Amino acid sequence: MKAMILAAGLGTRMRPLTDHCPKPLLEAGGKPLIVHHLERLARAGIQEVVINVSYRAEQIVDALGDGSAYGVSIAWSHETTPLETGGGIRQALPLLGDAPFLLVNGDVWCDLDPATLPSSLGNDLARLVLVDNPDHHPEGDFRLDADGRVREGEGPRLTYAGIAQIAPALVAEHPEGAFALAPLLRAAMADGRVAGHHHRGRWVDVGTPERLALLDQALRG
Predict the structure, then answer these.
(1) Tens-digit pLDDT profile for residues 49-69
(2) Which H or E element spans position 51?
């Protein structure tokens, strides 16, 4: 399975840290956030990684190169302007191929071992990794039924971890350009074609300078 790391965002919530450094290169525990992802993917046996870049793209490309230093091979998907998650995936499909791939938000940290996820999606269009709701997002995002289906609606909910297995067909028919992934996922949920995986380990949404500092302390401690 290939993986795609989303790294094209502007990082506005992380300012002023991102005024001169793209968010994927911000460090926690002595290494850039995106390097944590690359090393974990390599340990799981995922060697082909696609990374989309836009804001300060040259800094990210210069820092990571072809990925060989981290045990992976990186293919770069350059976006003149950020295409949002759906549009970024759509543009990268020629690099990703026809098989399901692992999608990872560049601004999360998680101790999930990707090798523990099922290797096949079957008839599903996606499998979302869900985590217990953090203090800053107590209401959560989606329900996870007893049969492993991800649903919207009332009831106890979990938080989407920013990690998923995606079938290319989820976005392949959408016109190119900037578009969000969430509406396509919600349509697939309504059709019963989104599975869920509840990860009970460590996870951090590195969305603010304060949370980055806390993650840095935890990893160094």
Answers:
(1) 999 999 999 999 999 999 999
(2) strand 48-53
